[in-house]
Amino acid sequence: MGSYVIRRLGQMVVVLFGATVVLFACLFVLPGDPVGSLGGDKARDPAVVAELRERYGLNDPLPVQYGNFVKNLAKGDLGEDYTQRRPVTEILAPKLTNTAKLAVAAIVIDIAIGLLAGMIAALFRYSFWDVLITLLTTMAVGFPSFVIGLVLLSTFSVKLAWFPVIADGSFQSMILPAFTLAILDAALVARLMRGTMLEVLKADYVKTAVAKGLPRRTVLFKHVMRNSIIPVVTYLGISFGSLLGGALITEAIFNWDGIGLALVLAIQQQNNPIIIGVVSFGVAVFVVLNLIVDLLYAVLDPRIRLA
Amino acid sequence: MTELTKSTADAGTAEPAAAPAPAAASAEPAVARVTQWGEIRHRFVANKLAVFGLVLVLALFLTAIFAPLIAPQDPYHQDLTNTLQDPSGEHLLGTDALGRDQLSRIIYGSRIAVEVGLASIFLACAIGVVVGALAGYFGKATDSVLMRVADVFFAFPLIIGAIVIIMAMGRGVMPVIISLAVFSWPTVSRLLRSSILSVREADYVHAARALGASTSRIIIRHIIPNSIAAVMAYAAFSVGGAIVAEASLSFLGVGVSPEVPEWGNMLAGAKDFLGVKDFLWVYPSIAIVLTVLGFVFVGDGLRDALDPKLR
């Protein structure tokens, strides 16, 4: 186990290194001059541009810039952004809180709806509810987040006026974006839960538990649930990672002030420090969560040996 | 490939009334006529949802191919005196903010969807199959290096990674295709690698090696054909995902150029008239949903048909 974790941590460093190199290579071969375009349409004084380029280290060769980035990153410093000239970490921190709020809300909805629907479908197999749930979860896969977002926004915000059209960070304005993010995952969780639960219900240890006269509830929660939930945990773990990495479409539709929206705006302004910050954060979260999920897997199912 | 077409043709004549193939096989001694591909085709056709998906996908292809014949108007033609018209006899699905015919733009939009969906996944599969085959067959250091490279590209969320590449290459159809492929191939190489690991020690591979077959011959003739099933199902499934990703990029304003008739562009333009001119986003959304469902159903059907042990 110990050597497994160490090896995985080593691989993680390699992946992060590779990902940031790819990111740097893409961002700094860009045709436009990020600093030159900062003043909008009006032309900048060449002396000011030169000073800014010096300030952001844009005159250094790429490997040097990358080296500085890694050095600062080790100190938890992502540099200054181009438009506000404030530390990237300071700009992104509140936005990350907003994104995290949304991600947690989405995961809660996934668990509530997905687990329940999957359980009902598995326990009452071939019933009306099973057929309905299977049909809905199959259809859900075909609905991209922007379609779901537009449907929810036009119905519940514009027509019914139950929720604000422009998100202000309140709980009220969080509901629609959270559902937009959650629907697809909830459907996949339900399918996953149904599938594994049907397997588990057939397992010998469940038959044994029933045969020895344990109450139905005990069998269901102690034996069936505990064993059915493992793949769901894995799936939700990975999903949470991608949600934290910035839900670009959903945040853009609902104007949710998270890191996804920040990334979209930074792309329009070629604000490279913000882009690098958000994207490397997203990659790091993904990699770390993958490791955690794999370790959790071994904890939940002692039969799994990590080697 | 010739083998494939021949066997499907055989299977087509062998079971016109969709009679159970095993029964037909046991009735006559010509058991060998029931080929693997015939069986797969039979299982696929028996799956109603898969057939429905196939109909949707074929409809999409036909629309894309014959767009100039079907579209009532030029999708680029602006008519500034007739902007934001509700659906009517003249414009069946209305007009957008620049007075362009919505129906024609949706019809032409299928071309970008098909182009990007097929090309990006084809490219992803080409890279993924080569990398996965090399990693799976040679193992050891080759495997570790190739798989770490795959991990790097796998760690980027698809849309975010694609945006980064597009920023470097500029907007357009080609950059979208390449950027989606660059972040999709790791899944293919992982799939192929793991299935090769299980096929590599199969008896027929040992037999081929004993007969003196070269490494490349073993990989191309024996290992890939037996591991490709998973890749094919993934590919069909992923075309839908690639089309969503492509529309998402345009929706965010980083995909194909804004004047191009494309579903994501149409939705981006419709966003400003939400609740007022809902037909602007409803119809392109329907086109996207039907397209994605088509590919998902075909992918699911293929997966079940290729490997009946699942499910």
From TrEMBL, chain A:
Does this UniProt record's set of keywords contain Cell membrane?
yes
For this protein, the parts annotated as crossing the membrane are 12-30, 102-124, 131-154, 174-193, 232-254, 274-300
Location comes to:
Cell membrane
Signal peptide range: none
KW Glycoprotein (keyword) present = no
Q: Which UniProt keywords apply?
A: Cell membrane, Membrane, Transmembrane, Transmembrane helix, Transport
For membrane topology, the record states:
Multi-pass membrane protein
Pfam families associated with the record: BPD_transp_1 (PF00528), BPD_transp_1_N (PF19300)
This protein's major location comes to membrane
Q: Which PROSITE patterns match?
A: ABC_TM1, PROKAR_LIPOPROTEIN
ABC transmembrane type-1 domain spans which residues? 96-297
| Family recorded in the similarity comment | Belongs to the binding-protein-dependent transport system permease family.
- Mind telling me what this protein is named? ABC transporter permease
Organism equals: Streptomyces antimicrobicus
From TrEMBL, chain B:
What is the membrane topology here? Multi-pass membrane protein
Keywords from the named record: Cell membrane, Membrane, Transmembrane, Transmembrane helix, Transport
Family of this protein: Belongs to the binding-protein-dependent transport system permease family.
Return the Low complexity bias intervals: 9-22
CDD domains documented for this protein? TM_PBP2
Q: Which residues form the ABC transmembrane type-1 domain?
A: 110-299
For this protein, the parts annotated as crossing the membrane are 49-71, 118-138, 145-167, 173-192, 223-245, 281-302
Q: Where in the cell is it found?
A: Cell membrane
Presence of keyword Lyase: no
Protein known as? ABC transporter permease
Organism whose genome encodes this protein = Streptomyces antimicrobicus
Q: What is its main location?
A: membrane
For region Disordered, the annotated ranges are: 1-22
Q: Does the keyword section mention Cell membrane?
A: yes
Q: Which InterPro entries match?
A: BP-dependent_transpt_permease, MetI-like, MetI-like_sf, OppC_N
Q: Could you tell me the superkingdom of the organism this chain comes from?
A: Bacteria
